[in-house]
């Protein structure tokens, strides 16, 4: 009998604070990409980035959501220091990179939310993606393009949008998740 993952009971938004719940699967600075194996109830190594490439910030997912690719919605979390695999980080949405990802001829939506840890000191004043350094945003988009390219996938950013649109995508992902569970 498979273990029931603890993340299945965790809502996308904390009901008391309204913060976005994000589970880190890959810490900032890591070449290793980890992923949650729902059947086994643990994290496993999903791949390794090429030498010289690392995740620019902590990367994770929003529990109780499903993105266009059938996986939980992805989130890049701005924090002062890297967290660890499996860490719950309460976050504030600031925006989203809407994108399509193509693999073996199949194209799906695979957006990347951008959030700030509510405990961050360095990023505490950022409320919208427009406040973020535009050059760094371009570098983050380039990271996702090259990361997917190294895996034989094509990642095409469609646009950069603010916190309101990011919140809508989380709500839609939550509805897809609930519908998939019956």
Automatic annotation (TrEMBL):
Q: Does the keyword Magnesium apply?
A: yes
Q: Which residues cross the membrane?
A: none
Entry annotated with the keyword Metal-binding: yes
The record ties this protein, via InterPro entries, to: Pyrophosphatase, Pyrophosphatase_sf
Keyword terms, alphabetized: Hydrolase, Magnesium, Metal-binding
Write down the Pfam families for this protein, in alphabetical order: Pyrophosphatase
Task: Identify the EC number(s).
Answer: 3.6.1.1
Cofactor(s) needed for function? Mg(2+)
Q: What class of enzyme is it?
A: hydrolase
Q: At the top level of its lineage, which domain of life is listed?
A: Bacteria
Question: What is the protein name for this chain?
Answer: inorganic diphosphatase
């Amino acid at each position: 009998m498979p273990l029931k993952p603890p993340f299945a009971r965790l809502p996308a938004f904390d009901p008391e604070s309204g913060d976005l719940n994000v589970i880190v699967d890959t810490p900032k600075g890591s070449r290793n990409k980890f992923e949650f194996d729902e059947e086994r109830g643990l994290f496993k190594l999903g791949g390794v980035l090429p030498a010289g490439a690392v995740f620019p910030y902590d990367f994770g997912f929003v529990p109780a959501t499903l993105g266009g690719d059938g996986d939980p919605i992805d989130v890049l979390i701005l924090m002062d220091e890297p967290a660890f695999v499996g860490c719950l980080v309460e976050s504030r949405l600031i925006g989203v990179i809407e994108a399509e990802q193509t693999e073996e001829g199949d194209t799906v939506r695979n957006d990347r939310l951008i959030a700030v840890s509510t405990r961050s000191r360095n990023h505490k004043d950022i409320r919208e993606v427009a406040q973020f350094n535009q050059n760094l945003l371009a570098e983050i988009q380039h990271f996702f393009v090259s990361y997917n390219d190294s895996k034989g996938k094509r990642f095409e950013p469609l646009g950069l949008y603010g916190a309101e649109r990011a919140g809508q995508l989380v709500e839609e992902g939550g509805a897809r998740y609930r519908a998939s569970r019956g």
